[in-house]
Each structure stands twice: as C-alpha cells, then as structure tokens.
Amino acid sequence: MKGGIFLSQFVYPASCIGCGRWFSFDADAWWCNACEQQRFVSSAAMRTINDATIFSAHRYSCEPVSRAIHQIKYGCVHVAVSVCARWLVEQLKQIEQQFSGSKLLLVPVPLHPRREATRGFNQSFLLAQQLQMVYSQCDVDATLLRRITHTLPQAQLHADKRATQLLTAFTTLKQPRADATYILIDDVVTTGSTLAACITTMRAVGATRIAGLTIATTAVAPNV
What is the pLDDT of residues 94-104, one digit of tens each? Predict the structure, then answer.
C-alpha cells in the first residue's frame, strides 16, 4: 500500500485549486496549507435577499476562494466542487437549526438549457450533488425550478439590468412540498438579482421556507 502511495505521488502530483502550487498527492486534499490559512480568516457572511436569509461560507475577495470558484465555473474541475462543498456544511447546519423539523431540499440555481449545453454542466447542480454526499440529511431537488429565458451572462450587465432581465427568467415545474425547506444553491452571490428572482418564483407557487447557500459573496450588501 505504501508503495502505491509513493508511486501516486510521483506520477500524479496534486495541484492546489487555490493557487496552482504542486504538492504531494492526496485525493482528499487538493488544497494547500497556505490557501487554507487565507480561507480560515475569510469569515462567513449572511445577507437578506427578498426576505430570505442567504448564507455564504466566505467572501469572494479571498483570492484562493475566488480561484477555486473559477475552477468550478469555467473549468468544471470536479475536485474543486468536492473541496468547496465541504466548506458549506457549517452554514447548512445553521439553516437546519433555523428550520428545525422540516425536510432540507437543495435547489441548484438552474441555467438556461442552451447555456448549460454550451458549458456542458451546471456548476450549481454539481455543488448541490456533492453537498448532499457530504451531508446526507439533505436531498437535491433539481426539478422544482427551470430557467426559461436565455439572458446575457450576469457578469456582463449592470445591477439594474440584471434585475430587469431576470423578472421572468424562471418558472416552477411542480408544486413545492409543504414540509420542506428549500435551499437555493449557487457558487457566488453578487447583486442578488438571480436569487431574488428564484425566491419570487418559488413563493408564487406556495413555497414558504426558503434560504440560500453559496460558496462566497462579493459583499454584505443591503437587503435586495
């Protein structure tokens, strides 16, 4: 066994997803001590969007965290999804305490089918899947919300235009469960327009217990 580990270190050295440095192979790591120290001092944050509490594990200004998110979003680096999902467990436990006694359902923020086909994946869905694997008290519900309007990428738009183009971007495919707390999952929250639109759409069909969970937030902004 030790020989196999030594060989894997020689043939498959690991590259940290936060800084790119190479270090000895560990299938459960992929995150160096230097980046972990920076992440440790990047405090969690909460903000209110459309009267729902959004929990974020970190601030986007933490460079290793923002690089890890970039690896997920644009590189589909699955090991980055695994690493980042573990960061969300503490916030998920807070949501569980807030909505005690209800079923926790993770709702990945959907991409428009055209964009998902182009990208090849939905990073929010991958994150929700991995989070369910590391915290089995929740399930993934990827069939509640659907994105029906193909819009410009949010990063290319000013905040007011983001909100406007998202007003009718989502629809629901079924009635929400009365016994469930729905937790919207996304990689990062910026202006909050996307999550606000999702929350409005879900409330319109009767969802009453809604929260949000992201890897990072760009700022602790005023209520949206």
Answer: 999 999 999 99
